[in-house]
Amino acid sequence: MPVSAPPELPGVLASLAPILNSYGYLAVGGVLFLEDFGIPVPGETILIAAAVYAGAGSLNIAVVAGIALLAAVAGDNVGFAIGHLGGRRLVERFGRYVHLTPARLVFNTLGAVLWVGVWASLGYLTGTNIGPVYEEISRYQRYAVIALAALLLALLARRLTRHHGPRRRAHRSTDDDTGGNPP
């Protein structure tokens, strides 16, 4: 299959286009390795962008997914090795508070397979229709932001009422017990 020109990526994905254009598969592997190692870089975003490139015919989706899987597992394992050598006692001592047990650490590869599979598939399927998909996302973006703001306000209100509610009730019951307020 002939390699076509890379697609024009919309939105935040556009910032990764120069990296993908210059480094291709190496960018996918390097960024995913760093992210799974624990460095805050845009791993999911570059995986999606590379999968979009693959959907448009500029990269091979099997190679993108394979490199992403290897990089994710390698990065996770390097991060784990550092933690294991320098901090296994912390995982064993405090891991139970976040439901991280030594037995669960063997699921690293399964998690990487699922993670790469989902993001690579979504990006690849989107890649062939990136223009119309981005137009639809842009059309409903305002509504999504409004809904998110409403949700955050509702959560904040709930937290404030839960936080302040018991104090008021406790204060009222203290006044009643001391006779401060007539019935």
Question: How would you characterize the overall build of this protein?
Answer:
By secondary structure, this protein is mainly α. The protein has two domains: 128 residues, no CATH class; 48 residues. Helix content is 74%, strand content 0%. Helix 4 packs antiparallel against helix 5. The N and C termini lie far apart (86 Å). The chain has six helices and no strands. The chain is flat.
> How many helices does DSSP assign?
6
Shape estimate: flat
Number of strands: 0
Mean pLDDT: 79
Number of domains: 2
SSE pattern: HHHHHH
Q: What percentage of residues falls in helices of 4 or more residues?
A: over 70%
Radius of gyration: 25 Å
What summary fits the major beta sheet?
none
Short summary of the structure?
This protein has 183 residues and is mostly helical. It has helices spanning 17-23, 25-37, 43-55, 61-94, 108-127, 130-178.
Write the layout of secondary structure elements.
Elements: H1 17-23, H2 25-37, H3 43-55, H4 61-94, H5 108-127, H6 130-178
Keywords:
183 residues; 74% helix; mainly alpha; 2 domains; 6 helices; single chain
